Known about the structure:
This protein is α/β, with parallel strands linked by helices. About 45% of the residues lie in helices and about 15% in strands.
Amino acid sequence: MKDRIASLPRGLYLIIDPEVAGGRPDEEIARQAIEGGARLVQLRDKQQEKGLQLPVARRLKEICAQAAVPLIINDHVDLALAVEADGVHVGQKDLPVSIVRRLMPSAIIGCSANNVEEALHAQADGASYVSVGRLFPTGSKADTRPATLDTLRAVKQAVHIPVAAIGGISEENIDAVLEAGADLVAVIGAVVAAPNVREAARRLAERISEHRQRSGQD
């Protein structure tokens, strides 16, 4: 577990959702966001069948591998295995972390959590990180449970694995998220829907870097 924790980068976590991309190619969004400073990339496609996601995931894996940025697949362990992705992110209604860990023993495994109990359970089952949200209003996912910055603080204090913050995070509220203890800042619309993906990612990544330097984390 310690090796997995140590190898997980901190910083800007890009989640690519084709519904938010406005028809722009997923791989081009990934490339530009990585150039802007994204440290992790996740493919989150809730609409297309896995067979249609496969070629996209393969191209994303190539782009991420060239930049030494981990590629995470949302939900689908079989798709992650097929493209040799670096990890999987699951929710509370997906395959349990313990089973995913058995199928992918050395992978990065993230798990969505809405409270301390869920976060501790994910950690005990072998999660590499937990994701706390939805912190702010967002149109990217309508069925997410709301969380608060106090929830984020409580989870950060309770677990020893990295904590990602997600849900409506933007330049306007990212400082509050970082002050609450987020190790990773997961964004969809703030980067994927931005007119200039590279620049949007760069501005957010710089804010994270500045916070980490001020707090002595880098």
